[in-house]
Amino acid sequence: GAEGSTLMSYFSKNQIQALKPKITFSTLRDLQCPVLQSNDLQGKPEESCSTEEFFEWLGAVLNQVSLDNNSSSFLSTYCCPEPNTVVEKAFLCTITGFIIPEKIIQLLEQLCCYFGEPKLAYWLTLTVHGFADSPVSWRESEHGFHKGGENLYNFVIFRNLDYWLQMAVGAHDDCPP
Length: 177
Prior knowledge:
Blueprint: H1 2-14, E1 22-34, H2 51-62, E2 84-96, H3 101-113, E3 123-129, E4 151-158, E5 163-169
Antiparallel strand pairs: 1-2, 3-4, 4-5
């Protein structure tokens, strides 16, 4: 109809093209990291942190929240869960754009190669999140924006290739299978 042809002329006139994903790298120095054991999801006092503690810590790191529990901070008094260790250098790579599942699998495979040589990392993590106001979510459901628009999953992969898969969705969304 007329509406379709108007849209087509708009797109051709403005030469809308698919954007290449944007990639940014950064190095985090002297980062406090929770101690993790791949076979211990609940964590143990003085031995390892739980999956929930790790997920919360990761959110703080990705959002560049200070981990030093400064009481004068108006933003956050969060501190890294115990037990933790200080990592001299951690690498953070962010890829922003429309990324198909096959590319995510490829990324996971490439990340696992990092455990080959040199064996520096005990674990690594890959977080994939949809746009907060994405029209779709898991399964066949529409995505409920309501409050935060949570719509993400996170892999934590260990040196022995065990892994954790964590998922977060909004209260009105279907959970994945």
